[in-house]
Amino acid sequence: MVSLCATSLTVAFGPKPVSAVLQSLDFELQAGRFDVLVGANGVGKSTLLRALAGLLPLQGGQVLLDGKPLAAIPLPERARAIGFLPQEITPAFSYTVEQAVALGARVAGHGHWFDTKSKPETERAIDAALDLVDARSLRDRRLSELSGGERRRVLIASVLAQEPKYLLLDEPAAMLDLHHQAELFRLLARLAESGLSVACVTHDWNLAVGFADRLTVLKDGGVLASGAPTDLMVPDILQQVYGDSFLLLHHEDGRPVVVPR
Known about the structure:
Layout: E1 3-13, E2 19-30, E3 34-38, H1 45-52, E4 60-65, E5 68-69, H2 75-81, E6 82-85, H3 97-107, H4 119-132, H5 148-160, E7 166-170, H6 178-193, E8 197-201, H7 205-211, E9 214-219, E10 222-227, H8 229-232, H9 235-242, E11 246-250, E12 256-260
Parallel strand pairs: 3-8, 3-9, 6-7, 7-8
Antiparallel strand pairs: 1-2, 1-4, 4-5, 9-10, 11-12
């Protein structure tokens, strides 16, 4: 089965006794679909992505990669299949943009971690990834010289250069201006249409309604609702997540729009 899924997933942190961040949660990321995770702060959105990427110990349940337990799959195979970008990342070295994106391209090589592709293959992957995020002009600059939004676009490019089957992004539009937010979500939708499986966390329901195939709302460590974004952007669900701190409006084209009250 071609999917990345969590079944009865339970994740907890802290000294015992602990309270679960995620409790018996089920989630499936299918090929060719753009999923967006939303919810209030602290409900487990980032935790779910990290668990799907195999970066957290589980207290219950399991993650399956194409029907196989993720924990039983060798790390190089996982790295070629799953691309993950956390919400915050501070590069330890002052790489150039080209060097940073090349790391992702090398993960996609065959064999062990960071085996180098042939130079033409690596160059092609770097160029393609930078073009996708509109960052080719930044290629020779150092990450330390970039603005927060520019650095975010480059880090997204480094994950795309990995050429994964499953793309997991935690708040990828953070620090991007309105133009690049829309361009990024438009890109993620196109990647899903081409067959890539995409899941991202955002607090912007309006971006989700504009571009995502499916919206999953998390609350209290579980799934409150999941379905078409326009079906879930309704007063009842929004009130369960945010109380009365929102206004639900409608754009002239009929799309629902949520704004702070």
